[in-house]
Write a structure and sequence with these properties.
Helix content: 25-40%
Strand order of the largest sheet: 9-15-14-13-12-10-11
Structural class: alpha/beta
Number of strands: 19
Number of domains: 4
CATH superfamily of the largest domain: Type I PLP-dependent aspartate aminotransferase-like (Major domain)
Largest sheet: 7 strands, mixed
Bound molecules: pyridoxal-5'-phosphate
Radius of gyration: 25 Å
Shape: globular
Length: 641
């Protein structure tokens, strides 16, 4: 059929040399795509995808889909369900990747070189952020927005020049970025253009300059982030419902009424009277970037950020990227990996150490409440006293960002924080949406400075164009009201499962294992996660085998999943409104970007943490039967492991 190519290996095909396809073959692909869209598996529509062999990566996914669409083999739902480009929708979904592929083929670009964003600003910003030399921007009348340029130049320190006329060759290494309302065919592009940004899409021509993949050194240390990494840390791909509509040529939905949703978000944070409207963005991390940029502005572009070394990997990496590009943030961390490490104690120690360093105009403390992945508490009253003390003794303005994603119903602002500006940050991708879309929200307390902080966060969300899309708002408006029930029911399932697990491990291994779960004190404060983590004791057969112990948590998870695939999904995330238990080893999934040294400290006896997240409805006895059988397999006296 078509005479186009799709690179087998991005690294070996740096320059896009795709041969354009004929109009006949694109018509064939479009008609095959229409058939495919009638066979979309339901597993393609969620927010998390299996973290096993079906997670084949973006390139392999394209390599499977392209011949399928280009050929004539029957398109079967069960076959499609074997392939996922990513493990989480923020990184790209099967449908957003197909949309990228279609757009690429229509205009003669390589399918792996086209990225869509749930933002019309991030395609350009991602190029500027990943460039190491001057970017010459052509055709950018509407980009000459003062506030956006100020953000790009003063905060992101981007080096770019607007240029008129036909693109010409820049100095050696310079990047030529063309901005076009309609995308030119690749064959009609000036030979000097390295990438084209058009609306929510970025078309990369020269991937030596505009990176498809992160550049790392021999030790795996990040040298330069790729477009894909900026997209996943600042925003996300076009949401699945919109990708589906665009593939079908249908209209995108209108904005739903959000009055009840906005009120509910404030109530969940414990501050129904908060004056500034909540910020609601395309993903949780999009809220964090808006919040961090606003903090930077209010802190005279000179800010300390303190967070746990084992915080969610995305929060850590985003802060590092922002710190690296701006040179205006110093990231400090505190470790809470030890079983007996207390969050407040560790923050107090870290702030005490920071007192003797260069004090910044603003200090932002970011805490997961409760923490990821071991559900640790923080005494918020004690914390306010510690923050006030830091402010008094250093003169730095102290602000607090509370990530309540694990228990969004915990109302942390209720009756607390009269002095301290507090931002309650929540990834709506979990319990609030039920896992049906991604999203993020920011709500502040009544403190005047906090309100200014949120107002400026709204402005940065505008500049990044990361406000939630209407299709996402529709899902949120339809699902938020069940958040409390969903969380309470899921929490009850988690309680029953953790009691069962602790008892069974004792029986099969003879060893005591304490699951990391909320304490009575946390329950009294309305903290109700449905997630817990645990370090299994090393089975006798591998006691002295370090390699086997390092691999054990994943091996346990893999076996558990295969023993009950109907009720267990090997994947990240939590808060799901379904009947599946999500299981993962955070060290290799959600904490993928955290250093090995830091993660090693959360292993016990050489065995890494396993994390279980529970749904509101499930067959608990079938789950515990699978759990028991898996424990027996690894801990019975005859187990070889
Ligand atoms: C604790 C926590 N906070 C924030 C986030 C970021 O949310 P999102 O995936 O919606 O960007 C995550 C994502 O998994 C998380 O686990």
């Amino acid at each position: 059929m078509g005479n186009f190519c799709c690179s087998k290996d991005d690294d070996s095909t740096e320059i896009d040399t795709t041969t354009p396809i004929t109009s006949q073959s694109i018509d064939h692909i479009r008609s095959r795509l229409a058939v495919l869209l009638k066979n979309v598996p339901s597993s393609w529509l969620g927010t998390t995808y299996p973290n096993d062999g079906r997670y084949v990566g973006r390139q392999r996914f394209l390599d499977e889909m392209l011949p399928l669409l280009n050929g004539n083999d029957e398109i079967k739902e069960e076959n499609l369900a074997q392939f996922f480009p990513e493990d989480y929708v923020r990184l790209g979904s099967p449908l957003s990747t197909l949309l990228e592929m279609l757009r690429a083929l229509e205009k003669g670009y390589s399918p792996s070189h086209v990225f869509c964003f749930a933002s019309n600003a991030l395609p350009v910003i991602s190029v500027l952020l990943t460039a190491t030399s001057t970017v010459y921007i052509y055709g950018a009348g509407e980009m000459k927005d003062d506030a956006r340029v100020a953000m790009l130049k003063q905060v992101f320190k981007c080096d770019f020049k607007y240029t008129a006329g036909e693109p010409v060759e820049g100095e050696k290494g310079a990047i030529v970025l063309q901005i076009s309302a309609s995308v030119p065919d690749k064959k009609d592009l000036s030979p000097y253009v390295d990438a084209v940004a058009s609306g929510d899409f970025l078309y990369i021509v020269n991937s030596k300059k505009v990176l498809l993949k992160d550049l790392k050194d021999a030790k795996g240390k990040m040298v330069r982030e790729s477009i894909h990494t900026i997209r996943k840390r600042f925003g996300g791909a076009i949401p699945t419902p919109d990708a589906l509509s665009l593939l079908k040529g249908e209209e995108l939905p209108a904005k739903p009424n959000l009055d009840a949703f906005n009120t509910h978000l404030k109530e969940l944070a414990g501050c129904a009277t908060s004056q500034v409207a909540p910020l609601v963005t395309t993903t949780g991390l999009a809220s964090l970037i808006a919040c961090n940029l606003a903090a930077l502005e209010l802190g005279d572009h000179n800010v300390d950020i303190l967070m746990a070394s084992t915080a969610y990997g995305g929060s850590s990496q985003q802060t590092e990227i922002l710190s690296k590009v701006s040179g205006q943030i110093t990231k400090h961390t505190f470790g809470i990996q030890g079983k007996d490490d207390h969050v407040l104690e560790k923050i107090t120690e870290a702030l005490a150490a920071m007192k003797s360093g260069p004090r910044k105009p603003l200090t932002c403390v970011l805490i997961e409440y409760p923490t990821n992945p071991d559900m640790k508490d923080c005494d918020l009253t004690g914390l306010e006293a510690v923050l006030t003390d830091y402010k008094t003794s250093t003169g730095s303005r102290v602000v607090l960002c509370l990530d309540t994603t694990f228990s969004p119903i915990s109302t942390p602002l209720k009756g607390l924080f009269t002095e301290t500006p507090v931002m309650v940050w929540n990834s709506l991708s979990k319990s609030v949406s039920g896992g049906f879309t991604t999203g993020g929200s920011l709500v502040v307390n009544e403190n005047k400075f906090a309100q200014q902080w949120l107002t400026r966060s709204h402005a940065y969300a505008d500049l990044l164009d990361v406000h939630s899309k209407n299709c996402q708002l529709k899902i949120l408006a339809d699902n938020h009201m069940n958040t409390e029930t969903r969380i309470e029911n899921a929490h009850q399932n988690a309680v029953k499962a953790f009691r069962h697990l602790e008892a069974k491990v004792k029986t099969v291994s003879g060893q005591d294992m304490k699951v990391n779960f909320v304490t009575q004190a946390q329950l009294d404060k309305h903290v109700r996660p449905a997630t817990f983590s645990f370090n299994l004791p090393p089975p006798a057969a591998i006691q002295s085998d370090n390699k086997a112990k390092a691999a054990f948590a994943q091996k346990f998870v893999d076996h558990l999943v295969t023993s009950y695939p109907k009720g267990i999904k090997p994947c990240v995330s939590f808060g799901q409104e379904n009947t599946l238990v999500y299981v993962t080893v955070p060290a290799t999934s959600t904490q993928g970007v955290i250093s090995e040294e830091i993660k090693a400290k959360q292993a016990v006896g050489g065995i890494q943490l396993v994390r279980f997240s529970f749904p509101p409805r499930m067959d608990l006895s079938a789950f515990t039967a699978a759990l028991d059988a898996t424990l027996l397999k690894f801990y019975s006296p005859s187990a070889a492991n």
